[in-house]
Design brief:
Blueprint lengths: L3 E7 L3 H11 L4 E8 L6 H14 L7 E3 L13 H4 L23 H11 L4 E5 L4 H9 L7 E7 L15 H5 L1 H10 L4 E4 L1 H6 L4 H8 L4 H24 L10 H10 L4 E11 L10 E4 L10 E7 L1 H11 L2
Parallel strand pairs: 1-2, 1-4, 2-3, 4-5, 5-6, 6-9
Antiparallel strand pairs: 7-8, 7-9
C-alpha cells in the first residue's frame, strides 16, 4: 500500500483508543500528529488518554497537542456513562505519562502548520467533536484546500440519535462546529455515521476473541473497555436486545476507511448539512438526496463496508 500520512483529531474515549491503536499498528501509516478536543471527557483527560495509548504502543514520540476545551456555543456534553469519567473506563493506571509530554503548541495552530508542511498529502481523521476543525478553517480559510481527504465519524443519516432524539454525540457536542465544517470544507469528505457503524457491527464472539489475545495491548484494552461493555449489557437488559446486537467501535470505522481504500464498499454521494437549531433536531445531519441544497460539494456517506477487513485491522492492533 502507498504510504498514508494522517493527522488525527480525537476526544479520546474507548473507541478513539481502539481507532488510534488500529492506525498505529498499520505499517503503511504515519501519524504526523494527534490533536485533542473536548467531548467524551475533559480536554485534560483526553490528552492524558492519548498519551496512555501511545505509551501502551511504545509510540510516545508522536506529537500530541491540546485544543478546544469547550464547544463554540452552548453547554459541554460528556459521555461518562459509556466511557467512564476519565474517558478510559475509569481503569486506574499508576504508570500513565504525565502531561509534560504534551507539545505546547495549540492543536489548531499545529493542524494548520502540519498541512502547510505537507500540502495535499495529509488525510485528516476527525473522530470527536469538530471544534478544532472549525477553528482551523476560521483562522485559515485555505486550510481545507490543503487537505488530501477528510474522514469524519459523526452525524446520522436516518435521524437516529444516540445522545438526543436526532443527534449523534460528536455532532451534538458542537453543532455549530459541525455546521461550519460541512459547509466550509470542500476537500473529499467521507463520513461514518452512527447508523452506519451500528448496521455493520461485529459479533460479541469476535470482541471477546479480540481482547483475549495474550499481549500487553490486549490487556490494556480489556481493562479500559470493561466499563463500556457492562454499560451496553445493562442497556440490553433494560431496553431489549437491540441495544447489544453486536460490538461497535464507532471511531474505528472512520479510521479503517482512512487507511484502507477498499474498506468501504458502498456510499451515498450527496450534499450534507447540519441543523444548528431546532427544538428536537439540533445537531442532526441532513442528507440532500434530492439535490435541493445550493451546494456543489458532495460528501461520501458510508453505507456498507468489509467487516472482515475491520476485524483484521483490529486484531493486528492488539498483537
Amino acid at each position: 500500500m502507498d504510504k498514508k500520512l494522517l493527522l488525527v483529531d480525537v476526544d479520546c474515549g474507548v473507541d478513539d483508543a481502539q481507532a488510534l491503536m488500529l492506525a498505529l499498528a498499520a505499517p503503511h501509516v504515519e501519524i504526523l500528529g494527534i490533536t485533542c478536543c473536548h467531548g467524551n471527557t475533559t480536554l485534560e483527560n483526553v490528552c492524558r488518554n492519548v498519551l496512555r495509548v501511545l505509551k501502551t504502543c511504545d509510540r510516545l514520540q508522536i506529537p500530541v497537542f491540546g485544543g478546544a476545551t469547550r464547544p463554540l456555543l452552548g453547554n459541554s456534553l460528556h459521555a461518562s456513562h459509556y466511557h467512564g469519567v476519565d474517558g478510559l473506563g475509569d481503569a486506574p493506571d499508576s504508570t500513565s505519562p504525565d502531561l509534560d509530554h504534551l507539545h505546547k503548541e495549540h492543536a489548531v495552530l499545529a493542524m494548520i502548520r502540519i498541512v502547510n508542511k505537507y500540502p495535499g498529502q495529509v488525510s485528516l481523521v476527525a473522530i470527536g467533536p469538530l471544534t478544532n476543525l472549525a477553528l482551523a478553517v476560521n483562522m485559515d480559510p485555505t486550510f481545507p484546500q490543503k487537505i488530501k481527504c477528510l474522514f469524519i465519524m459523526g452525524g446520522n443519516m436516518e435521524s437516529r440519535g444516540n445522545v438526543t432524539v436526532c443527534g449523534e454525540f460528536n455532532f451534538a457536542c458542537d453543532p455549530e462546529a459541525a455546521y461550519i465544517v460541512l459547509n466550509g470544507f470542500d476537500c473529499p469528505t467521507h463520513i461514518a455515521t452512527w447508523e452506519f457503524t451500528c448496521s455493520n457491527n461485529l459479533s460479541w464472539v469476535f470482541y471477546h476473541e479480540w481482547i483475549s489475545q495474550k499481549t500487553d495491548k490486549a490487556e490494556f484494552m480489556r481493562k479500559v473497555s470493561a466499563h463500556s461493555e457492562n454499560f451496553t449489557k445493562s442497556c440490553a437488559e433494560e431496553h431489549g436486545e437491540q441495544w447489544a446486537k453486536g460490538f461497535v467501535s464507532c471511531d474505528s470505522y472512520a479510521m479503517a476507511a482512512a487507511i484502507d481504500d477498499k474498506f468501504v464498499t458502498d456510499i451515498i454521494s450527496c450534499a450534507v448539512g447540519v441543523e444548528p437549531s431546532g427544538t428536537l433536531t439540533r445537531g442532526m445531519m441532513v442528507l440532500d438526496t434530492l439535490g435541493m441544497l445550493p451546494r456543489k460539494h458532495k460528501a461520501c456517506v458510508m453505507t456498507k463496508c468489509d467487516t472482515n477487513k475491520l476485524k483484521f485491522l483490529l486484531m493486528e492492533a492488539l498483537r
